[in-house]
Design brief:
Chains A, B: GO terms for molecular function: DNA-binding transcription factor activity; transcription cis-regulatory region binding. Chains A, B: Residues 90-112 are annotated as: Disordered. 2 copies of one chain form a homodimer. Chain A is 67% helix and 0% strand. By secondary structure, chain A is mainly α. In chain A, helix 4 crosses helix 7 (128-141) and helix 7 crosses helix 9. At the A-B interface, helix 7, helix 8, helix 9, helix 10 and helix 11 of A face helix 7, helix 8, helix 9, helix 10 and helix 11 of B.
Chain lengths: 248, 248
């Protein structure tokens, strides 16, 4: 009611949250189409139908908006990857992830590491905006935002790394530190490979058109799957011969 | 002689190269102290004693300068890592990297993969400016530069990835594609981990001061060594049972 006198301002907490969600949705739409790099605060304001100065009541910078999207991306990716990992775990009936002692043997190819690697790569590649956010987060997003925003983002991202790591450890024999490094490698390499491969960029066109570079065009999903599969099997080989209770 | 009438312009090819080298050295010095992100074209001009407009005769943008430094960084890192890998290779007398068939067995820990992983990580961590350049290259440097500059950089970087990959394959049983992925992972993760860990940044101080984040402070060298060691051993395990002539 109060807001009627100032129609552009969302006064109630619910209205404020709805406005924030509309801004985040608009930013996600624009970034999905054009890439994060190209999206300005003015673009987002225009997309959501607000003046730029009104936007600043909700988010201080474009980086703060993309950091919030990155946090949401971590939560959403983590939920799907954990559900799908749970279906691979022993006793889930969905597959033969193998018990830890067996997976740690490393003597012959185990389906657990390969399936987990494929699942990590596939769920990341299916989320091009999240890959773009992963590539931008360390380089840009942590610099034009308040330390409070960075802290909120980091606490969420670290919690999801731990949660995905725990789900991985039910499928492949890993220490908690190894599981965290697998998740860090998966997400960092997804961002890096996606940056090299993003279709429609001048860089991609250069690669495709130049005989010296055409062979370097990156096909993200199989490459990331290969790297993560080897990483997981390597950790399994590291654990060979250790008593199962030390693989903690 | 001709240049006397215009003392700020380097006329001869030699003088032009010397001026370019002075600009690159100045940029490297400033970036080593302050980080690439903080260094502007004006800063570099001041450090080398040129007016900014005179700088533009040699380099169009700060990104072009850093892309040239990145190319030089690839060449320099590649040379050292290949020399040190050669000392690990069978017959070099310096170690027991193992022949390919043995390294591919994967049944018990081989010194080749661990030594190669440690060497890759150690040589990268010893080059903080190169790590900073590696983190910035895909995100920033390929955007404010001409496609010709990007092409020159890419041709150099890809050649060094191939060269380091070939040196790796004399120490660890890898296909050429696997060797390339090891080098890509080593350099991308060195850039990513270095960004997370760069001392003196606001982010690092936040991590160190916050009880919820302190455990996430990254110690780059051991973490990168662990990831690369597992990756190399995993590829070795992948190759188990293949005839040696198929591991090409």
């Amino acid at each position: 009611m109060v807001s009627r006198s100032q129609p552009t301002r969302a006064r109630s907490p619910e209205a404020k949250r709805a406005r924030e969600a509309a801004i985040l949705d608009a930013a996600a739409r624009l970034a999905t189409v054009n890439g994060i790099r190209a999206v300005t605060l003015t673009d987002i304001a225009a997309e959501v139908g607000l003046h730029k100065s009104a936007m600043l009541r909700y988010f201080e910078t474009r980086e703060e908006i993309f950091l919030r999207l990155a946090a949401a991306g971590w939560v959403e990716w983590s939920r799907e990857v954990r559900e799908r990992l749970a279906a691979l775990a022993p006793g889930a009936g969905g597959g033969d992830g193998g018990d830890s002692a067996h997976a740690a043997n490393g003597a012959d190819p185990e389906p657990g590491p390969r399936a987990a690697a494929g699942l990590l790569a596939e769920t990341l590649v299916a989320r091009p905006l999240f890959c773009d956010l992963l590539a931008h987060t360390p380089m840009t997003l942590e610099h034009n935002v308040s330390l409070d925003s960075v802290r909120s983002f980091k606490v969420i991202a670290i919690a999801e790394v731990v949660a995905v790591g725990e789900a991985l450890r039910r499928v492949v024999a890993l220490t908690p530190a190894q599981a965290g490094d697998v998740v860090a490698t998966a997400t960092a390499m997804a961002g890096a490979l996606w940056q090299m491969a993003a279709p429609g960029t001048a860089l991609r066109r250069l690669y495709e058109s130049d005989p010296d570079l055409a062979h370097a065009v990156v096909d993200v999903a199989p490459r990331l799957t290969g790297i993560l599969s080897a990483l997981l099997r390597g950790y399994g080989a590291d654990g060979a011969g250790r008593p199962a209770d030390q693989v903690e």
